[in-house]
Give the backbone structure.
Amino acid sequence: FNITVVVGLVGVLKCLYSHNFWFTTTLVSTHFMACGIVAKGYKVCRPFAKAPTVSYKHIITIAVLKVFSVTFHNLSLLFNSVTLFEVLSFLTIPLMCFVEYVWQGKTYSILI
């Protein structure tokens, strides 16, 4: 379901950008609101699932970084083709693994 929503959102964003819609913050906000609604719906469907305990500092840090990430993804989509956008999005994962290896010494098994 999530992959369908993301690919659909990329198509909608590219269509809006081609019609001179430049309000990327509105699109980011709409995206986060849709994700929040889906998360609340999931919580309602599974009321007995125990949520993990996470500090507010950690949540705020991740939220701020995610806002910047989505904003830069939208700007990339604005100036690049959908194909190049998707390739760059897929290259984000190995890049993050490399950065975590360099900065934190974190390693991953091949089974991931």
Observations:
- The helical segments are 2-18, 24-45, 56-79, 82-104.
- The first helix runs from residue 2 to 18.
- The CA atoms of residues 23 and 42 lie 29 Å apart.
- The chain is about 75% helix and 0% strand.
